[in-house]
């Protein structure tokens, strides 16, 4: 179903200032170079400002400094990218993961369902589970015993939520994600692995989004905790007893080992690996493919890894890295010789 909004309505959504016809309507957001009549677009990177005069969109969202470059209807906003996000939400036509309760859904008699709950085909809601108002459970999901899911939270198809997991309100969990699986806990007795039951759970706050095929393990004794307003990308591994602070964002493929604490408002680049039993301070940015082996006590930007090189150069670099220990010994020998000469 197509959504149409007037420029006046868009101004209310973005708290923007109208320049032009407030009755003009838009139904889609488009890139500036492909936008046409009926679209709205935005300028967030000033280097593209030179193209504003050729833009065919019905409405363009810009900062005040670029308003004079636009050919017709303009929405002047403080941050065009944030305005784009709000307008995109208002025009979003993504279907709900489920509508109503499917005949093939299996819901335990003592499960507690709030008002206006939807449960998709072949989903299972086990004994003692609690679903808040307006919760949407997609097809093929599993909600374990005594799990709790807060108001307005949506789960896409084939999400597994284990027993006693708690998910807050207004969350979004993408397909294939597993929340509350066992952490990697074993003791070794004379070469034989003895499984340690994972007796904690997972507690996820409000307004948290979890990408597709991400795994969040339950704690060994205490809980794994994801605080409010955290966003987690696809195909991540969050191990047992990890604690992620408010407002942190983590990109795809990141792996966090057990019992690590990550502070508030951190940004973790994709494919990063974070060691266990360490602490990362608030406001830390870790660039992609970093390997974090020790605690970080001060906010800032941190990086590791070898940037891409032509293969011939990389082979030389790798060969030199393998000789670091030998080079260190030779350097120490030279230093000792110099010290002896100075002393004599």
From TrEMBL:
InterPro entries: Hexapep (IPR001451), Hexapep_transf_CS (IPR018357), LpxD (IPR007691), Trimer_LpxA-like_sf (IPR011004), UDP_GlcNAc_AcTrfase_non-rep (IPR020573). The keyword Repeat applies. Belongs to the transferase hexapeptide repeat family. LpxD subfamily. One of its GO terms (biological process) is lipid A biosynthetic process. Transmembrane segments: none annotated. The active site is at 240 (proton acceptor). GO terms for molecular function: N-acyltransferase activity; UDP-3-O-[(3R)-3-hydroxyacyl]-glucosamine N-acyltransferase activity. It comes from the Bacteria. Pfam families: Hexapep (PF00132), LpxD (PF04613). This is UDP-3-O-acylglucosamine N-acyltransferase. It catalyses: a UDP-3-O-[(3R)-3-hydroxyacyl]-alpha-D-glucosamine + a (3R)-hydroxyacyl-[ACP] = a UDP-2-N,3-O-bis[(3R)-3-hydroxyacyl]-alpha-D-glucosamine + holo-[ACP] + H(+). The gene is lpxD. Its EC number is 2.3.1.191. One of its GO terms (cellular component) is membrane. Residues 24-89 form the UDP-3-O-[3-hydroxymyristoyl] glucosamine N-acyltransferase non-repeat region domain. It is an enzyme of class 2 (transferase). Keywords: Acyltransferase, Lipid A biosynthesis, Lipid biosynthesis, Lipid metabolism, Repeat, Transferase. Catalyzes the N-acylation of UDP-3-O-acylglucosamine using 3-hydroxyacyl-ACP as the acyl donor. Is involved in the biosynthesis of lipid A, a phosphorylated glycolipid that anchors the lipopolysaccharide to the outer membrane of the cell. CDD domains: LbH_LpxD (cd03352).
């Amino acid at each position: 179903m197509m959504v149409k909004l007037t420029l006046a309505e868009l101004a209310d959504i973005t708290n923007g200032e109208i320049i032009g016809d407030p009755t003009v309507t838009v139904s889609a957001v488009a890139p500036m170079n492909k936008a046409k009549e009926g679209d709205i677009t935005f300028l967030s990177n000033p280097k593209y400002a030179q193209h504003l005069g050729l833009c065919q969109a019905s409405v363009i969202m810009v900062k005040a400094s670029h308003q004079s470059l636009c050919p017709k209807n303009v929405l002047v906003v403080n941050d065009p990218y944030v305005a784009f996000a709000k307008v995109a939400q208002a025009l979003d036509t993504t279907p709900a993961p489920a509508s109503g309760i499917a005949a093939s859904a299996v819901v335990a008699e003592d499960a507690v369902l709030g008002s206006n709950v939807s449960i998709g085909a072949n989903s299972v809601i086990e004994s003692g589970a609690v679903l808040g108002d307006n919760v949407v459970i997609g097809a093929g999901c599993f909600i374990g015993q005594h799990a709790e899911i807060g108001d307005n939270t949506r789960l896409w198809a084939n999400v597994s939520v284990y027993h006693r997991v708690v998910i807050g309100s207004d969350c979004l969990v993408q397909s294939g994600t597993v929340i509350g699986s066992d952490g990697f806990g074993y003791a070794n007795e004379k070469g034989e692995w003895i499984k340690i039951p994972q007796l904690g759970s997972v507690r996820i706050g409000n307004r948290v989004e979890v990408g597709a095929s991400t795994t969040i393990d339950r704690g060994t004794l205490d809980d794994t905790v994801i605080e409010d307003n955290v966003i987690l990308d696809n195909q991540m591994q969050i191990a047992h007893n990890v604690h992620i602070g408010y407002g942190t964002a983590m990109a795809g493929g990141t792996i966090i080992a057990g019992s690590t604490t990550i502070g508030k408002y951190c940004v973790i680049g994709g494919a990063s690996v974070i060691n266990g039993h360490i602490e990362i301070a608030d406001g830390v940015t870790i660039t992609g493919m970093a390997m974090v082996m020790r605690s970080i006590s001060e906010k800032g930007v941190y990086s590791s890894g070898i940037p891409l090189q032509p293969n011939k150069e990389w082979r030389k670099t790798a060969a030199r890295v393998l000789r670091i220990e030998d080079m260190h010994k030779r350097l120490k020998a030279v230093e000792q010789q110099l010290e002896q000469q100075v002393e004599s």
